[in-house]
Structure formats: C-alpha cells, structure tokens
Specification:
- With about 240 residues, this protein is an alpha/beta fold.
- It has 2 domains: about 110 residues, Tetrapyrrole methylase, N-terminal domain (Cobalt-precorrin-4 Transmethylase, domain 1), CATH 3.40.1010; about 120 residues, Methyltransferase, Cobalt-precorrin-4 Transmethylase, Domain 2.
- The strands form 2 sheets. A 5-stranded parallel β-sheet has the order 3-2-4-1-5, with helices on both faces. A 5-stranded mixed β-sheet has the order 6-7-10-8-9.
- Helix 2 crosses helix 3 and helix 6 runs antiparallel to helix 7.
- The N and C termini lie far apart (about 55 Å).
Length: about 240
Amino acid sequence: MSGFVSFVGSGPGDPELLTLKAVDRLKRADAVLFDDLSSGPILTHARAGADLVGVGKRAGRPSPRQDHVSRLLVDYALEGGRIVRLKSGDSGLFGRLEEELVALRHAGIDYEIIPGVPSAVAAAAACGIPLTRRLTARRVQFVTGHDARGTLPEDLDLAALADPTACTVVFMGKRTFPALCQTLMEKGLPASTPAILAEAVGTPDQEVTRSTVADLASDLAQEIGTRPALILYGPLADI
C-alpha cells in the first residue's frame, strides 16, 4: 500500500508558531521533504531517524525543478509510511501546492492539508499593525512579485494594485518592486504611500523597514540583499 502525505504549513520560521497538528505530524513522519524556510529549529520536531530531505526553492539560487520535487514526493509515498511535505507559511499561498497535489492524485496517493500561519499575517504582527483598518483599509490583497521566469507578471490587475484604499502584500517581490512601483505610480498610486519591507520574518534575522513606496523602490533598485521578504503597502496603521 502507498503511504500518506501531510502537507504541513510551518508558518514563517518561528517554531513556536507551529500548530499542534503540525508538530504531531512531524513527530510521526517517516520522511520530511522541507523547504529552505522550513528548516532549522522547526526540524527538531521531526521523529528521530526520519529521512530529512531539502527540496526548497529560493529566488536567484540553484533550486530543484518542481517536477523533480513532485516526483520525489510521489516516490517516497509509494514506499509506504507517513510523509510530511513541509512548506513555509501556509502551503496554499504561493507555495506550489497545486502541482504536488496533482501529482499525488494521479498516483492515487491520499493526503491532507494542515494550514500554517501565513507569512503575510506574521509580517503584520511583527510590525505591530493590523492588515485591515475599519475605516480606511477594508480590503487586503496578496500578489506574487514574479512569475515562473522570475520577472514581473504581465497579467497583474494594476488598477487593483494601485488602489490607495487597499492593503497590498507582495510576495517574492524585492527584485521586481522598482518596476512595479513605477507602473503603479503611473496608475495613480501616490509616491508617499506607506510601505514596509519585512525581511526574514519569524527568524533571529528578522528586520522591518518602514518607508514609502517610492523610497523603498529606490532602495531596492540599488540593493536587495539575500533575506526572504514581504512588501506591504497601502493605508498601513502606524500605532
């Protein structure tokens, strides 16, 4: 019989933000296939003797192809036992979850999805602010900053992203934010719109930089660094 796969959202990196169900699945897993941002202290919850396999993807770095990761996941599951696919944040948010689900379904392998703390929510908490504001930010939108080629997606809803009354969170957007910002300002987004760069959220290297969209775009055009980051902009609270 084939094994069973648990897709586990590990949150932003702080092991204390793991859910009880996530910890349970890690303790019982025969193998854990983990992303880069789900490594470190989080893996201390894995069962002793479990196979720990890094399959993470990082922008600008050599990474395993998605079809290879999906095939590896299927191969482990076909050997039987309990498999954990450990993904950062919540696996359903820009986590390439769909490709791996399709591979399991085609192979006839059962699975479950265990949600994790979304990195966008953790970033707002790290900044000490809410993502919504009762009178000025009634809408939150999440968007990826790059497509499969690593460039700014061409099919973005620019009118929505330039809406000054929405709180926008850009995932994986440090490289492309200068170009995105220029386009959004041309669409009417004020250059003075508050912006936050939240880097390495939930880790000891966490750093939060408050700025404006124009100033942040200028800074990122010169240096983006290596830390994973989210960009938040819009009517952000300043509490």
